[in-house]
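Let's practice the habit of predicting before peeking. Look at the sequence and jot down your guess about where helices and strands might fall. Then scroll down.
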Amino acid sequence: MLVLASASPRRKELLGLLVKRFEVLPADIDETPKEQEEAKEYVVRMAVEKAHAASRIYKQQNHHLDSSVIFLASDTSVVVDGCILGKPESLEDSRSMLRRLSGRSHQVITSLCLCNINLEYVATECVVSDVSFRDISDVEIDQYWKTNEPKDKAGSYGIQGLGSIFVRSMSGSYSAVVGLPLYETAELLAQFGIHSLEEMSHE
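Done guessing? Here is the structure:
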């Protein structure tokens, strides 16, 4: 059985393209970056800690453990000038982020972690995509905030939604920017014996 350690509806939808049946078990962790922690190291650490936290919760909730349970976790960060942009906490926060992204390129780093329940086997992956924004006006930023879309998005925008109107171009993995890199996820799942095409073709 596969367990998705995320409350993100976007990750749930994307994983549903690869696997028919899985459980969702979100895990709250401290997402504060460590001092002088590199963005890639931070994003991978977040995915690993989410997977580990989900496995602990699962063990607490299930007395009869299934040793074949696999946990999948992911984390996405928007990075500009080496600075990690998380989710905005206010309109002012959103303004600050989108002004920094306006008229230039930034990176979206998405990590993956798959592990078994006893953490005997842990596999990680990190995907970096480049996204270029057009110039964004303050009026547009305020209007965008009113749609509620940026409020739970890293970097204060969603490329799969209205935020796509800011995107001039991108290079890398679109699904990774949305929240779950499908190619890399399928590759890691295969290492754990889950083959996406086989899964989805079964009645």
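How did you do? The chain has a mean pLDDT of 93.
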